[in-house]
Design brief:
This protein has six helices and five strands. The chain has about 170 residues and is α+β, with helices and mostly antiparallel strands. This is DUF3916 domain-containing protein.
Amino acid sequence: MRQIALSDKKLRGIPRRIRALEKWAQGFSGYGRPQSEALERYFNWKIPVHSALVQGRQTNLGIQSRCVAALLKAASCLTEASSTASNGYYRVACLITWPWLHQSEVTIFYDKSYYESFLGKTNALAPRRISEKLSLSVPARFLEHGHDITQPEDTFPVESWCIGEEA
């Protein structure tokens, strides 16, 4: 369940929350979501965790890595089921906002040009890769492209990463 932290109270049950997230990701095994409306360009699932689990002073790289790995697992399961769900364009990607991981999501794209606007032509942050920072293994058929989306009011760099199938 997605929750926003309204206090700095210590987050309890971190191992249980991570297990629940991993179970959520595994639930996509064999699941494919076909396009429900003719003009629908995408469908997404936001990361279903308490915000303090993935960002803020209570988290660490190990926890964040396991959470992003669960998103990648969900995306991989959706990709494997794509042959039964698609009757047109169908691409799956993880959209990760670093360091604000609570904004991250797994997205199915039904429109090629819309997907390409997220993926981009090249990895603007190359040679850096979020998978190396978090010690993750990205599925072989997935690309990893990052872009700097830092705004003038931000106090530190913000990056948007798209890890998904080739457009």
